[in-house]
Amino acid sequence: MKKIYLAALLLLAAGCSKQLTEEPRGLVGGAAALSSQAGLEAALTGAYGSLMVPWTSGFTSVSQIAMTMGGDDLTTHPGSNKEEFREFDRFNVSSLNSRMTPIWLGCYKTIQSATNIINNYNQVEDGTEATIHAIVGEASFLRALCYYWLTRLWGEVPVIPSEVYSPEYLHLTKSKPAEVYKLIEEDLARAEEWVPNTKRDPGRCNKGSVKALLADVYLTEAGWPLKDQSKYALAAAKAKEVIDNKSTYGFDLYQDGFLKIFAGGTVEDVFTLFTRGQWSTYNSFYGLSTMPENEGGWSDFFPELKFFNNFPAGPRKDATFSTEFVVSGDTIPWQQTTTKHPYYKKFTIQQPGNKAVYMSNNPVIMIRYAHVLLIYAEAQARAAGAPNSDAYTAVNAVRQRAGLAPLPAGMSGPDFAAAVVNERAWEFAGEWNRWFDLVRLDQVAAANADKDPADLEPATTITQDKYWMPIPGVDALVNPNL
Question: Which residue ranges in the chain fall short of pLDDT 50?
Answer without folding.
Answer: 1-28
